[in-house]
Amino acid sequence: MPASMKTLADWLAHAERQHPKTIELGLERSRTVAQRLGLAFDCPVITVAGTNGKGSTCAMLESILGHAGYRTAVFTSPHLVHFEERLRLKGEAIDGALLVPHFEAVEAARAEIPLTYFELTTLAILRCMAEAKPDVAILEVGLGGRLDAVNIIDADCAVITSIDLDHMNFLGPDRESIGREKAGILRTGRPAIVSDPMPPQSVIDHAREIGADLWRFGHDFNVSGDKQQWGWSGRGRRFSGLAYPALRGANQLLNAAGVLAALEALRQTLPITAQAVRTGLAMVELPGRFQILPGQPTLVLDVAHNGHAVAALAENLDAMGFYPTTHAVFGVMADKDLAPILSRIGPLIDRWYFTDLPTPRAAAGTAVQAQWAAQNTRKDVASSVHADPMSALRAAIEAADPADRIVVFGSFFTVGGVLAHGTPRLQGKHLLSGA
Questions:
Q1: Cα 62–chain centre separation
Q2: How confident is the model over 18-46, as pLDDT tens digits?
């Protein structure tokens, strides 16, 4: 084992050098190493897959279960600012030093087996989680489901959130084939919660083929509500008079509905009170999911980076009311289909600030600007290109009036780039964060 590997940063650099591909789907490598490590959980495991809404679903599960008194362990990816965000124990990000022995164990166990960055880091995190002996483990799928490294663990309950077109070069060309990949996390005889109200038939078919206990939105559980409060009803239980989740946006109610279905399906092993549900939903936090930072101008952060998520962002922006000018800081990966993103949100944006991102997988700001210009029909919209998200944000602040709003959206690298020095608070023409 390399003697120089002392810190988390050393191990992450090592993980990046290990495998020629950043993404290589398949479970054999991870499963073999996991077996050598004796990796196993002796608590209920909830696995969450989906195109959008995975992070929000995990955060709501964590918040409700935490308020019910359970010791939670949550694995999510990617991170916004710090790698340590990927593992939260009892609601707190892990101290990076605590992960080092788990990287050492994975490295020793893998021997001749090449692992991608995601596989190596996932195995180290899962080992750390299992050793922490939580009451419940919540695992967010990185990409797809069936062949994602997380799927080496058998879920006691699987949740599939929205399904839409993303990562099509890996998962297939349409919702049916993508749904089939997501459905790979389902297990025979165990609850399969589908919170997408219009799921692909492939998900339903796969659940039935393997004999999973299928819970469908609109069939096995449902929501009702007015402007003030909402209610949930499932197979054997109802919750009424709930406050809306603290995470903003219309789509969060679907995520919350799936969360309550999962908790209802697991009530024999993880009973929770109505009070834990109320408090958990009211207190849930997740940076970068339609996060509105009040100030002058108003700042909105959202990791929407595919057509489906950007459509939800556009709806949420519409619902915010009138702003004289909306400025957008946008940076995105090169494999994204920009046409539906730009056509959906274009009418709402008055000035664009395209940004480069610090990863080879990103599209150059100039390339995104060129695609935007090719389809732009509005004469009154300006654009510029910037070297990094913080420079783009500073340019937007410089140009914005106090009554305007600035939307930072796209890749996790875009939103993370403006959160790297703390949460910005805008006041007039000046940026008052630690930047």
A1: 14
A2: 755 655 667 889 999 999 999 999 999 99
